Batch of 4 targets.
Target 1
Amino acid sequence: MVNKKTKKPTLEYIANIAGVSITTVSRVINGSSLVREEVAKDIKRIISETGYVHKASKIELPLSMTEVDFFCLEHLYTESSFYAEIIQSIKKEFESKKIAINIQLYNKHTTSSLLSSLISNSQAILVLGEPEDNLTQLLYDTRLPVLLINAIDSQMKIPSIHPDYELGGYMAASYLIENGHTKVKVITSNDRHSTCQRTDGFLRALLFSNIDHDKDDVVVDLNTYEKSDHTNFGAQELLPKLIAQGLFEDVTAVFCVSDKIAYTLINALNSHNIRVPDDISVIGFDNLTLSSIIQPALTTLSVDYSSLAKATLIKLVRLSNEPGNIRNRATIPVEVIERETVKYITPM
């Protein structure tokens, strides 16, 4: 009999008892047919008697790339710290694995021939935001690993990864409801998947909470208004006018689909002597650095940029190692960051 009191038996220990090599023991553990049946049977008996536990090797995908081309629309590259956070987090994560990130700025006027030339020299491609048409078809045709960041492909031909915006909108509404708010609105600009998803999630929470509501009354879609300034969805131009028109008079809380819209709303409300959160509560989305600095500090939904970057790396490496490029859509969790702009009220 084998001495069962041996602490943490090793492959070498089992091999010595069985009178075989460590390689033979390893083959038995991994189900190889190269070991004679009687020898395998004896090794399995020893493993059972010693209580040896085989620890599976950590699966590591080989890094089949040394650099990645990261295509960014010019206006996204400079638009706000939200996109800057995504870019910097991805650069940091990839460069920590010795993978260079080449930022390729483009716009809807960039010629297909130039984009094609850039792609032809690529090992793998990341695309920030929903690609313009001049890039989309090239991505469909390439055999390179391609991944969309913070966007989805409506034809599901290109894999993508983004924060769970729909659930984030749901969480925002649920948080307001938990704090007694049922007379609510969402300020959005439904001209892209990410904002539509936040709006849809918000409305779903109202539905599931049995809160009677009219979608057309709840949703303030800045994209439907005439405006001369399209910066920040035109919020700075439109919100003071909408407040003056009394659009928020019977509302106790507002969800803004971005922190920047929330900042604009709070400033506009203050200029009309409407205090946040005493008179009306506000919750944002993105958790930009300024959100914790402004007064009152903004309650918002936070994206874990580090997790997004790590998941991006894992997904792109997997795509590069698996022929056929599995087409799927992945999401990263978000969470409510509770600060000072949402007030609890007694439900009516």
Target 2
Amino acid sequence: MDTPRPQAGTQAWLNQVREEPLDPDRPIIDPHHHLWRARGDWGPYLLGQLWADTGAGHNIQKTVFIECRAGYRTDGPEHLRSVGEAEFVAGIARAGREGGGGAEIAGFVGHTDLRQPEAQLREVLAAQVDAAQGLFRGIRHAGARDPQPQHLVIPGHGAEGLYADAGFRAGVALLGRLGYTYDTWHYHHQNADFAALARAVPGTTLVLDHFGTPLGVGPYAGQRDAIFSQWQRDIEAIARCPNVVAKLGGLAMPDNGFGWDNRALPAHSDELVEAQGRYYHHAIACFGPERCMFESNFPVDRRSLPYVSYWNAMKKMAAAYSADEQHAMFFGTAQRVYAL
């Protein structure tokens, strides 16, 4: 009788591919990960799971939690329920500091609706700052929206025309005036709208997550090269906005369509370099290393490859750049942008 194949993303599945960490002493900030108790068929990803990944061989010194609607309050005013996520993460970060021995959760990017009236938005931001206990760095109100979400494993729920909404732009501008960042997540066909947003709010630092998520499933399957060509032009336009910085990672989500989440074995670092290197090198050429930061997007990308393999791939690609440029992408840019 055949042994059942381990489910993608489980530790048993990931353990089938073991790589020795390259350049293990290099200091790294992982500026993009999530935490949650449980989510659908995704198991819990809490401090123990995070430390198992960040402590697997690479020198991950600090991390930044990015909102994922975890730990929300279940009662009280609707506009303040997302403050529960700040409380949730602050508690985990405090436990990490007290326990010692693992990467420090050094920053928190929360969520709120940036279209709400300014007085109410200021109230939420103040509550997030208080609840995050020194970790609050900014807001992600994602714009991801696709006309055929039924094809996506992780469909976005952004409002139609969000980036052009006057109230939304006012909220993003307020973040900049208060010294906070704006993170986003959207799909490749929304990149031009994001560039227009960036031009409209030059006083706010905007963080482009996951390369603008080039899709590769459903109606986008079989169009990778055509989508890449348009994506290249869009990234060039976005990079001309000096207030935008880019997170390089998050391309191993199921919806990117590389198919690693459907295989018997996880991806190896060499496969990531071969399949995705052109995205990384183009973004670095457009933004410059001082405006780029590598990101794991774990545990989401855990459905495709182990944590050690992701960072090995980054180190293999980064070998083409100078020592200062490498330090920027692994550590310095994230440290500066998120004031770590």
Target 3
Amino acid sequence: MNRSVRILSACFAVILLFSLIIPGSAGAAGESCAPSQAVRKHYINVSVATLWKEPSINRTLDQPSLTSPVDIRKWTASMSVSQRRWLTGRTETQALYGQEVRLLQVKGSWVKVAVVDQATSKSQYGYPGWLPSSQVMTTTSAYDGCPFVVVSAKTAVLYKQDKQSKALEVSFNTRLPVAAQEDSWIKVHTPAGGTAWLKAKDALVYEQAVDIPQPSGTDLVHTAKRFLGLPYLWAGGSAYGFDCSGFTSAVYAFHGIKLPRDASEQIKEGRPIALDELQPGDLLFFAYNQGKGKVHHVAMYAGDGKMIHSPKAGKTVEIIPISTPEYAQEFAGARRYIGE
């Protein structure tokens, strides 16, 4: 080896050494994932975005859910039971911070989008609805190949760079790309292109979606029980309030299983299960016309002849016997979505 080659080799060795010991460099516990250039994509840029059937049909009291940032706690706490019922048929679904949406239409300060990972027959692109354009962020940078976090706490705080100042509170099931992991903290990429810190105890980290462990039925029920007492919210899909199918799809999604957004379509997935074969985690469906009409409700079998569900406005997530007359007379079938 001549002298110039030895010098060049030594330089590479020094570079490699520094890359291993300097925080934030490749291979260190610091920054570990960089964005890749992609086509334009659109992401939810508020903790929870509520999608409406039409633009500008909201009431004054809905304003906290329409701003950027939103105040979902204030909005849900301000509504009476009748005001919650008013949302029926007017709101469509909700999307969480960082969820990808497809832009379908623009009308003034409102945009119609489809939530990409919420399957529905309403649109080939995802579950559609209208929301203020200020709640959507457009970017050409993607982190599709990065590890990601799934928020496991009912709600979690994203902190600014000082790890003390609150940036945003996000819901259970929020997924964000991981930028770095450091002791008891996880650094995540945000939709707006910045980063924030999340306490490691509030989330789970996966290299890719297929790494999420296959749940048992007991796992699904355990997750569902964490939301006992949470008030029902029509179109709700977050830890601030669920509707019936928002509840079941969120619990399954947390465990890596995607279900259609609506109960009427969830019943078309999985495999049929007889009542005497029910196991925890199976879903129970209820329909008009004594179970022969359109499916309008879904619950999860909790074991011991009971079910857990998010019933209707004015009630909370609860566990009741599956023999409860109101539901038993409308039973339309059961489905299982996990292996034996």
Target 4
Amino acid sequence: MKVWPYLFALPFVVLYFAFHFYPVLYSFWLSLHDWNGVGRKTFIGLRNYATLLTKDPLFYKALYNTVMIMIMSVPAMILLGMVLAYVIFQLAKGRVFFQTMNFLPYITTPVAIGFIFSFMFDWQTGIVNNMLLKLGLLAEGLQWLQDPLTAKMIIAMMIVWRNLGYFMTIYLAGMTAIPQDIYEAARVDGSTGLHTFTRITLPLLRNITVFLIVTSIIGGLQLFDEPKLLYGGWTASTSGGPDNAALTVIWKFVNDSFITGTRFGYGAATAYMLFVIIVLFSIVSYRIGSGKEEKA
């Protein structure tokens, strides 16, 4: 029996169990206790979960906000990423330049993105209000960041602006992998650009679309950086934005565990409930995507 492969894999396995698998199990065990991080842990069973689901309306508010922002952003990223990739794919010159320019926001730090959008939509000095006022479309500046609906829309815009380059790159890689013989045969048969895109390109990119939808749902339900930096930093005095319209599940988890309280057991229960929700959403989205593929 050869032991060298196991010896080479042993460091990774040990580190994985020590820094990933064990913390996951420990957090579940912690969710069954009442603990403030200092005193003695008190076993309370499923009480944290019962409180979260029956006595904490802010959890449902945070979950609603997270899902609404995800609904606003994910379809836009899928559609715009696909169209942008197709346009760049058709370019004869300058493809690398446009790929790089569109990918730059994805590697921009979230802190910088928070500053950019805070400046853009500021009530007094924001460039958006100034432009609309100069064009005569507004009589006075709007408080974009203080309205619950526009707050969600701005966060969705931040997500789309940041991740559009990533979606474009994935779709562009998928289009490049499609054999050119298929397009040549379509041109011989008289297929136009729109017909080729809808009848050939889109079906062949279905697996990529399913992958992006599933990963977007997983990432969207873990949304934290954009709302936190927009409303929890230097521009805001309260957590969660106006009427908690920007509060997400992860932000609530951070608040309960480390900021407004030190309820580590309750925070662990929130994290595990989010894990269950992510699994359910992922299974549903994957089955819908694979179901369409089987019918096709």
